[in-house]
Amino acid sequence: MTTGLTDDSVIRFARGVRLQHDRVRERWIIQAPERAFIPDPIAAEVLKLVDGTRTLGQIVADLANRFAAPVDVIGRDVHVMVSDLMTRQVLVA
Amino acid sequence: MTETILSPMSLLAELTHRCPLQCPYCSNPLALEPRRNELSTQDWISVLDQAAEMGVLQVHFSGGEPMSRPDLPDLIRHAVGLGLYTNLITSGVLLNEKTFPVLVDAGLDHVQLSFQDIDTANAEHVGGMKGAQARKLEAARLIAADGMPLTLNFVIYRENADRVPQMLDAAVEMGARRVEIAHTQYYGWGLANREALMPTAAQLEQTTQAVEAARQKYAGRLTIDYVTPDYYADRPKPCMGGWGRRFINISPSGRVLPCHAAETIPNVAFPDVRHDTLAHIWRDSPLFTMFRGTDWMPQPCRSCDQREKDWGGCRCQALALAGNAAATDPVCSRAPDHDRVVRVLETLPAEPPPFRYRRYARATDEVG
């Protein structure tokens, strides 16, 4: 399935899906219909920037800046991750 | 006791046993709880507060038909305020353009809507309610139009197993994001109707193939949860992810159970939210500790490399089939009582017997 993602795509959570901090277990979780996923630490950093207004390009730029990493490397990784989360019905663009 | 006690993830709130439908595979116990024994709104509020405090992430409002309870919107709103993910497990026959917007306003996250079949005549024969299918289709339409995520639930049994491909296509047409193709589990009313419900091995194979084909066809659009009838398996299911590890069930009268069938377990007190705290019940009650972890296990479980994967299978099934809740689940091919499962499958009647419908023992409890 092709997701048609570009740097201008605005990323948001699918309805009924959200990132939430689990204070009892001290970790981030993705709450979704009848299941909860545990994002890895990098995915959690990406998902914290998903607010329904930022574009994919803005999210990549923010991460590249904060982690002092090349934009093209971060961009590739984030693109793959967002595509995967779209096919799993967590994110929509 | 060396077992680590985890925090529960998930709470099944069985608000009521009252339901307009009478499905013969219902997971509720044979002794249905009358309305007069149901917990009050305030009792449920306290349960939700305690559950969130303990680390529960998702609350599933179920029944019976949870929409029979007029306080459902208040309970949803309260759960949402606590950060709980709220799921409504409903037959949909009470979900309409008046009742649904109230649930949306309360902040409901998700609906799981059950269908007895995709064929209307058989669906209404099984549910025991004329006109139910049209109401369910209208419920699906309202939920999809709102945009709330929708899961359809199809319980699979002998009479509808051949229509799984049509169910999967219909799920996509109805705008569902997820669908459960769940073979009947043989507890409660399902166990009482086992001879009428159990599919043949050939039917099971066909449903598996239909699910595999639809997973390809609808990849990225439809998530399919597939539950097999474990009588046909070699290894038991990890029932509830292990006894007292992840899951709490509260019955309509406030009994706190490790699974929805646990009221069949003999010789143990059933803890009650009206008399004790949820945290204490979870951690220390005899019911929750008796099969937690691996210390309780008999052979062959105790020395089996699967013991922390399947947790010995299902205690209620061990009780139902082997007469002993502490036995290895007879579904396991290594279990001493496995021949009992084999015999059930070998002696399935050529023609399924009539259903024993889910009903209250006393007709006066059935309505209202």
TrEMBL record, chain A:
One of its GO terms (biological process) is pyrroloquinoline quinone biosynthetic process. Keywords: PQQ biosynthesis. Transmembrane segments: none annotated. The keyword Glycoprotein does not apply. InterPro entries: PQQD, PqqD_bac, PqqD_sf. GO terms for molecular function: quinone binding. Pathway: Cofactor biosynthesis; pyrroloquinoline quinone biosynthesis. Gene3D superfamilies: Coenzyme PQQ synthesis protein D (PqqD). Monomer. Interacts with PqqE. This is Coenzyme pyrrolo-quinoline quinone (PQQ) synthesis protein D PqqD. It comes from Komagataeibacter xylinus NBRC 13693.
From TrEMBL, chain B:
It comes from the Bacteria. GO terms for molecular function: 4 iron, 4 sulfur cluster binding; cyclase activity; iron ion binding; oxidoreductase activity; S-adenosyl-L-methionine binding. CDD domains: Radical_SAM (cd01335). It is an enzyme of class 1 (oxidoreductase). Pfam families: Radical_SAM (PF04055), SPASM (PF13186). Its cofactor is [4Fe-4S] cluster. It catalyses: [PQQ precursor protein] + S-adenosyl-L-methionine = E-Y cross-linked-[PQQ precursor protein] + 5'-deoxyadenosine + L-methionine + H(+). Keywords: 4Fe-4S, Iron, Iron-sulfur, Metal-binding, Oxidoreductase, PQQ biosynthesis, S-adenosyl-L-methionine. Residues 5-221 form the Radical SAM core domain. Its EC number is 1.21.98.4. Binds 1 [4Fe-4S] cluster. The cluster is coordinated with 3 cysteines and an exchangeable S-adenosyl-L-methionine. Pathway: Cofactor biosynthesis; pyrroloquinoline quinone biosynthesis. [4Fe-4S] cluster binds at C19, C23, C26. One of its GO terms (biological process) is pyrroloquinoline quinone biosynthetic process. Catalyzes the cross-linking of a glutamate residue and a tyrosine residue in the PqqA protein as part of the biosynthesis of pyrroloquinoline quinone (PQQ). Belongs to the radical SAM superfamily. PqqE family. Interacts with PqqD. The interaction is necessary for activity of PqqE. This is PqqA peptide cyclase. It comes from Komagataeibacter oboediens.
